[in-house]
Amino acid sequence: MTEPFPVGIDGLAFAGPAAYVDLADLAQARGVDPAKFTRGLGQHRMAIASPCEDTVTMAVEAGAQVLQAFDIDPAEIGTLIVGTETGVDHSKPVAVYVHDLLGLNERCRTFETKHACYGAMAGLTSSMDWIASGRARGRKALVIASDIANYGLGTPGEPTQGAGAVAMLVDRQPRLLEIQPASIGDYTRQVMDFWRPLYSKYALADGQYSIQCYLDALAAAREDAVGSRQDLLGELQACLYHVPFVRMAFKAHQRELEMEMGQAISKDEPEQWHQLQDSYAKRCAPWLTLNAEIGNIYTGSLFLSLIDLLRKAGSKLAGQQVSLFSYGSGCGATYCLGKITECAGEWEARLDPSAQLAARRRLSIDEYEYMVRAGEHADRLESLNPDDYGLSGGLYYTGTRDDRRHYESV
């Protein structure tokens, strides 16, 4: 029997808003101890999208970056999938706007996936199936996660906001990460842990229940992927998780280690707690700096950690195995194993977003609140001027005229 060719992630790129809020500033404005955000949540900054920056503009920017950085002709893309839970239309997909603005071939399968924070992983595995089936005929898939986490001013979820897009090229013989199809495990259950009704611009959440749903989904998807193995973590050089806030990765890793140990881990047991901390420090913490700087980007959060891993340790960990866990409220989840390719280190500089992040503008709290309030009505405004938000040199949403959204390069 012929061995299946490897399929996985061939390129990665991040794009996000031009401004951010420092969580120390937000804590001071809200009258809370900054440590509640920086240590309790593990967050330091959060990207804030202006009314002119939406899921389309960020997805296009990320898509253009990955095509350019990894030397891909747009004509090579045969499938485009955009995963988002903050779309711009109840019917028309973000993906069609992106397809047009990137100049992709008309002979291209294009659609949007929505399942809270799980949409991009659904797109990734679907595109892998498309390639493995033979339908790709030598073409590649472009999967983009693009989202804006917006909970409203003064709400409990305010410090866990963020915005951004991660674009992924998916192909056979990938240059960055091979994903092992036999190790992909899935889980679905109808729960009301996080949702956004049609009449609301803001999501509703049951925070503690959502954390429990996340951990239950992790356990079930992991078991579906690798069974009841109690020796897996010893083989993994990195464990990547969905990161709504950085501290959630610690909770997730604790659950994985508990599954292998067959018992709960408590601070009251110093030896077990020390083992957990050591494992987390080695396999998780080093790859969470981008999440801490950008915030919650929903569908792209897991893959933001993957960019962090590959930009820092692509060479060092070449040929090594890693795990990825994606969770979307509602809920759906996938756990899978991947192998960093031998040539991944050659691409570290091309996928590093450091220069982009360094160029961002730090918002005062007054500027941030003004931007949030302006964004609440942006979908109905006929005209928006990017200059009003200090924006230039990119693609921006400039208003809805005759019930049609308009995008312009400035």
Which architecture per CATH? 3-Layer(aba) Sandwich
Taken together, the total number of domains comes to 1
Low-confidence stretches: none
The largest sheet, given as strand count, sense and whether it forms a barrel, is:
10 strands, mixed
Question: What attributes characterize this protein structure?
Answer:
410 residues, alpha+beta, Peroxisomal Thiolase, Chain A, domain 1, ten-stranded mixed beta sheet, three-stranded mixed beta sheet, globular
What does this molecule look like?
- The chain contains twelve helices and 17 strands.
- The chain has 410 residues and is of the alpha+beta class.
- The strands form four sheets. Strands 1, 4, 5, 6, 7, 8, 9, 12, 13 and 14 form a ten-stranded mixed sheet that branches. A three-stranded mixed sheet has the order 3-2-15. A two-stranded antiparallel ribbon has the order 10-11.
- Helix 4 (94-102) links the parallel strand 4 (77-83) and strand 5.
- Helix 3 crosses helix 4 and helix 6 (207-226) packs across helix 7.
- The longest helix has 20 residues, at 207-226.
- The model has no long low-confidence stretch (mean pLDDT 96).
Write the layout of secondary structure elements.
Layout lengths: L6 E9 L3 E4 H8 L4 H4 L6 E4 L6 H15 L7 E7 L10 H9 L6 E5 L5 H14 L7 E10 L12 E11 L4 E3 L5 E4 L5 E2 L8 E2 L1 H20 L9 E6 L5 H15 L8 H14 L5 H6 L6 H13 L7 E8 L3 E9 L13 H5 L2 E2 L2 H11 L19 E7 L2 E6 L1
Parallel strand pairs: 2-15, 4-5, 4-6, 12-13
Antiparallel strand pairs: 1-7, 1-8, 2-3, 6-7, 8-14, 9-14, 10-11, 13-14, 16-17
Helix pairs in contact: 3-4, 6-7
